TrEMBL record:
Name of the protein described by the UniProt record: J domain-containing protein
Organism: Tetracentron sinense (Spur-leaf)
CDD domains found in the cross-reference section: DnaJ
Pfam families found in the cross-reference section: DnaJ
GO cellular component labels: chloroplast
All copies of domain J, residue ranges: 2-69
Length: 136
């Protein structure tokens, strides 16, 4: 069941329709108003309605949900909460790419300190001499 079906609205529903459907269902399924023998069932439904409202009322999360829904992944959408949103994942991936390019550049510069015969460059020799003299 999709969040749209849960709230009883169409996929093109507006924010006011989402909000109205949420209010009605939240009042209906709130654990405080549930019959004593169905408290657990009402609580579970209330949590589902709450999650549906949180996702569909946020334009970015709704766009992600709609994308996943079109791929048939709406049942696993709750797992996205671990990562907050895809921008964080992209930012982490970008950080890793920057780090790898910096590491590659560092290795390239270090290899430039050696000439083709394995001799060190003048600057590398000076650093080496300075380090040796400071340890003595």
């Amino acid at each position: 069941m999709s969040f749209y079906e849960l709230l009883g609205i169409s996929e093109s529903g507006t924010f006011s329709e989402i909000k109205q459907a949420y209010k009605q269902l939240a009042l209906k399924y709130h654990p405080d108003v549930s019959p004593p023998d169905r408290t657990e069932d009402y609580t579970r439904r209330f949590i589902q309605v709450q999650e549906a409202y949180e996702i569909l009322s946020d334009p970015r999360m709704r766009a992600l949900y709609d994308k996943d829904l079109s791929l048939g992944l709406h049942l696993a959408f709750s797992a996205r909460k671990r990562y907050q949103n895809d921008e964080v994942l992209e930012e982490r991936g970008e950080w890793k790419n920057r780090w790898q390019s910096q590491l590659t550049e560092l290795k390239r510069r270090r290899s430039m300190n050696m000439d083709s015969r394995g001799n060190m460059s003048w600057a590398a020799r000076m650093r080496s001499q300075r380090n040796q003299s400071s340890t003595e």
